[in-house]
Specification:
Elements lengths: L18 E7 L4 E4 L1 H6 L11 H7 L5 H14 L3 E8 L5 E12 L5 E10 L4 H11 L1 H6 L1 H15 L3 H15 L3 H10 L11 H11 L6
Antiparallel strand pairs: 1-2, 1-5, 3-4, 4-5
C-alpha cells in the first residue's frame, strides 16, 4: 500500500493541539506520528523517528506493560485497540491520554496495521470535571440516564473503561462548548442511525461523536 498523509487531527477537533494522529505498520513495526503527537512527547516535528521502543520508553512505568499488551493484541488479533494511559514527555511532564486505534487496510482489504488518534486530556479534564461537578451537579443527576447510556456506547465501541468514556464525553463537551447532558442526549438519540452490520462501525461512531454537538439543543 502506498503511503499517504496521516489523517488530519482536525477530524477530531478543529485547531486542537491536544489531538494528534498515528499509524503503525505491523511489518517492520514502523510508526508515523503527526506533528501534534510528536509535540505531545516533547519533540519538534521531524527531529525524531518514532519506534516501539521509543514509545514504550515514554510510558509511565505503571502503564508500560498495559501498552505493550495492547500492541501485542493488535499485532496478533487485527489492529483495533483503545486505551487510557499516561506517558512522560521529554521535559518530565506527565500526560493522561486516550488512544483510539482502528484497523489499517491495504488496497485489497487486508489488515496491515493500525491507525488512529491520541487525545491528550492533561490540560482539559481536571478543570472541566470540577466545573461540571461543582456548578452543574443537579443537571448531571437529571441527565444521568443519558450520560450513562452515552458512556456505555463509548465503552462498547472504543473498548475503554467507564472513567475514560466519561473523560472523552467531557472533552467533547468542553471543546465544542456544549452542555454535557445535551451532548450525551444527542449521542443516545442518534445511536439508531449506526448500522452495526457494516465493517466501519467505529468510523460511523467517530462521525456521530464528532458532529453530535452541531445538532444538540
Amino acid at each position: 500500500m502506498a503511503d499517504s498523509p496521516l489523517p488530519s487531527a482536525s477530524a477530531w477537533a478543529i485547531a486542537d493541539r491536544n489531538v494528534g494522529t498515528f499509524r503503525f505498520w505491523f511489518v517492520g513495526q514502523r510508526w508515523e506520528w503527526s506533528d501534534e503527537v510528536a509535540r505531545m512527547h516533547g519533540y519538534e516535528p521531524g527531529t525524531v523517528v518514532p519506534t516501539t521502543e521509543l514509545l514504550l520508553s515514554h510510558k509511565h512505568p505503571d502503564d508500560r506493560q498495559h501498552v505493550q499488551d495492547l500492541l501485542d493484541h493488535a499485532l496478533h488479533l487485527g489492529g483495533s485497540f483503545s486505551s487510557r494511559h499516561r506517558f512522560i514527555d521529554t521535559a518530565g511532564r506527565l500526560h493522561t491520554v486516550i488512544v483510539i486505534g482502528d484497523r489499517m487496510l491495504d488496497d485489497k482489504g487486508a489488515v496491515v496495521g493500525t491507525e488512529g488518534y491520541y487525545i491528550d486530556l492533561t490540560d482539559t479534564f481536571a478543570q472541566t470535571r470540577r466545573q461540571a461537578l461543582s456548578e452543574s451537579l443537579p443537571e448531571l443527576f437529571e441527565a444521568r440516564a443519558a450520560i450513562e447510556q452515552a458512556k456505555g456506547a463509548l465503552m462498547l465501541v472504543y473498548c475503554i473503561d467507564a472513567e475514560a468514556a466519561f473523560e472523552l464525553l467531557m472533552w467533547r463537551s468542553q471543546h465544542t462548548n456544549t452542555k454535557l447532558r445535551s451532548l450525551a442526549a444527542q449521542i443516545v438519540a442518534e445511536l439508531g442511525t449506526i448500522d452495526p452490520q457494516r465493517d466501519d462501525l467505529r468510523r460511523q461512531f467517530d462521525h456521530l461523536l464528532l458532529t453530535a454537538h452541531t445538532r444538540a439543543e
